[in-house]
Amino acid sequence: MSTFTLPNSEPEVPVHLTSDLSKEQLLTFPAFRNWLSTLQRSLSNQENTSHTFHTAPYQLRKINIQSADFFGGNRLGFVKLQAEVSNDNGEKLPGSVFLRGGSVGMMLILQPDDIPGDREDEKQVILALQPRIPVGSLSLAELPAGMVDDSGTFSGAAAKEIAEETGLEVPASELVNLTELALPPALSDDEEVLQQAVYPSPGGCDEFVPLFLWQKKVPRSQLRDWQGKLTGLREHGEKIKLMLCPLDQIWKLGGRDAKALSAWALYHALKKEGKI
User: Which of 136, 205, 215, 267 is the most buried (most CB within 10 A)?
Assistant: First the structure.
């Protein structure tokens, strides 16, 4: 184990590393850099006399790295740390943090192309059923999650399955960022600068998920064919399976998935306000 002082920290913040993690690896880890800059910005806002904590401001005092997980190619994937954040009165804020960074959630809506205009009739949402060991499930129904890759296309395991099963690819140019429309950016220096995204578990994890909408009209015969094919029933050994869910039923079939519920709520709220 080794210790270093966080660069440009005032007061100085010691960082205690695990034996398998270097200073350079931690400081270049995007999730750590984003978490740290966001926290430092929020702490600096306490200088404003109207801030709740102005009279007894909190400071970041120490960071203890507890564990690090590496992906293929020795790429840092997850970091578990304990941040000591306290004020001069000895009051502390909970500081157990699991750093993993952001991903994206996709609300993919298909509708027969003979439905006129902006009517909501017969809209179907693609859900993915897949193992999620952290919650003890081998078949959790959720909105497809992944990333938007360098070529500007939705990618990841769920996106690959969608392309294989339906031939659909989701270009970034056709995406509507629901969270960006619903959550305006900070307008002054006194506001906290958080991600324009959903935080599924802010009590312990930094994960943030921008939610995107993609709508496509397809021939009714094609949609009927997919409805027969995408049943959610997996073949032997198949890890990810897709299913079509009526839009008005997503709160039931995808109700355990924070992405699905958030996207469903944002979709209806933004529709009501005429933003989508």
Answer: 267
Quickly state the pLDDT bin for 232 (edges 50, 70, 90): low
For residue 94, what are the CA distances in angstroms to 83, 86, 134? 8, 9, 22
DSSP-H helix ranges across the chain: 23-27, 30-44, 157-166, 178-182, 220-229, 250-253, 258-272
Quote the pLDDT of residue 241.
Answer: 87
Distance CA 109, CA 211 (A): 13
What is the rounded radius of gyration, in angstroms, for the C-alpha atoms of the chain? 22
Q: 91: which 2 tokens?
A: 């009051």
Q: How far apart are CA 32 and CA 13, in angstroms?
A: 15
Q: Which of 170, 146, 153, 141 is nearest to 234 (CA)?
A: 141
Task: Extract the tokens encoding 79.
Answer: 């970091």
Q: Which of 83, 88, 49 is nearest to 66 (CA)?
A: 83
Q: What are the respective helix, strand and coil percentages of the chain, to the nearest 5?
A: 30, 30, 40
Residue 86, φ and ψ in degrees, nearest 5? -145, 170
**Is pLDDT of 154 > 80?**
no
Sort strands 96-99 and 104-112 into parallel, antiparallel or unpaired. unpaired
Q: Are strands 211-218 and 104-112 parallel, antiparallel or unpaired?
A: parallel
pLDDT tens readout for residues 120-139: 999 999 999 989 999 999 99
Give the C-alpha separation, 131 to 142, whole Å: 11
Q: 14 and 5 in contact (C-beta within 8 Å)?
A: yes
Quote the CA–CA distance of 143 and 106 in Å, as a whole number: 6
